[in-house]
Amino acid sequence: MPNPGIFHGHCKVFLDAELEKYKTALAAGESPKDTISRTQRHYFKCYPVELPLSEDPTPEALATVNDNAADVERLPLPDISLVGKAAYNAAVQAENERSTKVRKLQGQVEGYLRYKYRKTRVLTSKASGAFDPYAAFYRKFLGIAADKPRRKAAHNI
Questions:
Q1: What is the number of other CB atoms lying within 10 angstroms of the CB of residue 132?
Q2: Are the CB atoms for 18 and 25 separated by under 8 Å?
Q3: Radius of gyration (C-alpha) of the chain in whole angstroms
Q4: Could you report the per-residue pLDDT of 91-105, keeping only the tens digit for each?
């Protein structure tokens, strides 16, 4: 059974819709990194980091998402002299875990888009039905066998 991937439910539907935007942006000549960063920003507005991947946001929460609104600034770490060393260390650890999760999800969103784009774009000459007249020349020149290697039949002469 193949790996179902990390994204399920509404999140997968969202990323498939973003994949179409990614394809049109690349066809228009936009930078892949800009397109992916825009998708990641939209992803984190719809699916907060604090929300587990196994849960979908409510339709009301998705309806309130505004892409044109400024991103919410993260609060600075508390002052160690005011809260104490234990509370400060807990806050630092929580922030580090959150930033690690954000980086991981960014990589997963980027990987999903790139993989799905390549999977839909790349066609071999056999799959596309195109005939390459120079294919025999390329194989001969590079020393690549035209067919799969076959074992010689065992028989006596």
A1: 9
A2: no
A3: 25
A4: 899 999 999 999 999
